[in-house]
Structure formats: structure tokens, C-alpha cells
Write a structure and sequence with these properties.
alpha+beta, three-stranded antiparallel β-sheet, elongated
Length: 161
């Protein structure tokens, strides 16, 4: 077996943490680090060994798809819904902005579809305009960075629903 630090061929290696990296080293190089028990990953480790990384990637792949019973998403035609509801009340963009304590430019951008409203703004608009800007959807979604994406045509064709 070869020491990962000095390159010596030795009969026995020690598993140690040296400067945040778990390494297999000889008796002489073991003094430069802290011995690690098999399966243990100390807090000071900055770089994980390849086998641990591989295991975590495999676990993440298994969790990639998840079923969601129902989820509320913003309707696609929200700009038109907001504009029609505002106009049906005879309000200008400025009037609506004052009623929900936002700037006129926010309303303008929403109605042009240049801006997606956040949850707080959606609730204000729904309450003042008495409309629904969210709809419930169900099906299979791919998990992505803390949020789910909408269903794609591929999901529908593959029979994922």
C-alpha cells in the first residue's frame, strides 16, 4: 500500500485528517494529522473522500423524483387576470398600487408579465381584487434547489401523472 502523503510503499496505512482532508498515510506521516475511525467523518474535514461523495450522489439520485399530492402554483395568465380585475373596478394602475401599498411600476410590470409576484404580493392582489392567482396542480415533479418546477410536456407524455 502506498502512503498518499509521502509515497512510501508500506504494509499498513493509517486513516487520518490532515488540513481538512482524510488521507491514508504511513506510520511516519500519521503524526501530521488526527486518526479517524472507519466510517467516522470529523467536523474539521473540508474535503470528503471519494467513496463518501459517491454514496451521497447515489442517495440524491434516488430522491430526485417525488410525488406531490397537490401544490399551488401561480396561474400562467396572471398579468391578464390582474389587468381585467383592475379595469372592471374602474381603477388605474396608480389606484391599485395605493390600495395594496406598492409602487405603480410594480403593477405595470405585473400586468406586462415582466415580474412574477411573490407570495405576499399574491395575497394582497387576491384580497383587493377578489381573484385567484394560484391554482392547485398534482403529479410528479423533479426536485430542484429548494423548489419544485412545473410539469413538462415530457412528464405528461411519459405517463408520469
Amino acid at each position: 500500500m502506498i502512503c498518499e502523503l509521502c509515497g512510501k510503499d508500506v504494509p499498513r496505512l493509517h486513516r487520518v485528517v490532515i488540513e481538512g482532508v482524510i488521507m491514508n498515510v504511513c506510520d511516519d506521516c500519521a503524526r501530521f494529522g488526527k486518526e479517524v475511525k472507519k466510517g467516522e467523518i470529523p467536523k474539521e474535514v473540508k474535503y470528503l473522500p471519494p467513496e463518501v461523495v459517491r454514496e451521497r450522489v447515489e442517495r440524491a439520485k434516488k430522491r430526485r423524483y417525488r410525488d406531490i399530492e397537490e401544490e399551488e402554483v401561480l396561474v400562467e395568465d396572471y398579468p391578464e387576470l390582474i389587468r381585467k380585475a383592475r379595469e372592471s373596478r374602474g381603477w388605474t394602475q396608480e389606484d391599485l398600487a395605493k390600495r395594496i401599498l406598492e409602487k405603480k411600476t410594480v403593477i405595470s410590470k405585473l400586468e406586462r408579465g415582466e415580474m412574477r409576484p411573490d407570495e405576499k404580493l399574491i395575497k394582497k392582489l387576491e384580497k383587493v381584487l377578489n381573484i385567484r392567482l394560484k391554482e392547485k396542480v398534482s403529479g410528479v415533479y423533479r426536485k430542484e434547489e429548494k423548489k419544485a418546477r412545473g410539469m413538462t410536456l415530457g412528464d405528461l407524455l411519459s405517463g408520469a401523472i
